């Protein structure tokens, strides 16, 4: 079956509020801001683990938000029917020191994050 999804490139100024708020909140180590962005039944997939629901996501944020000091550089973004992907170059004090990742957000009608995945940068 042929893939019929249409992908649109997005400038940083057109990213949904939850996307920019997540990155800004994470960079500021603002746990409360990051946690408030998720729907109650959301999922986060990170480093081979899936965190389901608010309690597990809150724990994930608490366990990981302060692990490393990083800077992020926006590389580009795209949107398809179901997902907004924002790619960043991340530099910091983690093993390897540099990575380019795409944060893949799925949002509900209220603008809350219902799913967040991470993949290699798409741009």
Automatic annotation (TrEMBL):
<dbReference type="Pfam" id="PF12680">
    <property type="entry name" value="SnoaL_2"/>
</dbReference>
<dbReference type="InterPro" id="IPR032710">
    <property type="entry name" value="NTF2-like_dom_sf"/>
</dbReference>
<feature type="domain" description="SnoaL-like">
    <location>
        <begin position="19"/>
        <end position="114"/>
    </location>
</feature>
<protein>
    <submittedName>
        <fullName>Nuclear transport factor 2 family protein</fullName>
    </submittedName>
</protein>
<dbReference type="InterPro" id="IPR037401">
    <property type="entry name" value="SnoaL-like"/>
</dbReference>
